[in-house]
Specification:
globular, 5-stranded antiparallel β-sheet, 6-stranded antiparallel β-sheet
Amino acid sequence: MKAIEVPQIAGAYLFEPVPYADERGFFCRTFDADVVRSVGLDPGAFVQDSLSRSVRGVLRGLHLRSGVGEAKLVRCSYGSIFDVVVDLRSGSPTYRNRAFFELSGETQVTLYIPAGCAHGFQALTETADISYRIDRPHDPAEDVTIAHDDPELAIPWPLPVSSMSRRDREAPRLAEALQQKER
């Protein structure tokens, strides 16, 4: 497994596994504490694992947490997704930058998203399973959501949105969400 820096988002990394493939399929390591540690992250800091399943066109996000935020490791374990990260850390050299990725079960690449960055994705396949590992227990009172279609962000979602949560549909624009984040 190797770590690849994401130039558009300071402190973000892609962790690319090295699969072993044969006639049975493949095997790969999806988490390696030594590789995570090699880029200055504490592998023991991750305290919760979650899984979501989405169908083609479903859009989830853009989400982040108020206060100190939440760092995440995100991987599409089955299917594929269009993944988006927006740097909303006011002191960051990449503040307000966006980065787009296609994560898939074929590659098993894991994306590290630093605390203070917004995250969202859209399922590109009939079924897409996404694994999350976060660095602190989830507290719904700290949830902040940003409108996925905010013109200031101009995210090029690849498909028409087939479904999204009420919270995501009613999300405020970036400017209002940033005020929430600071609370």
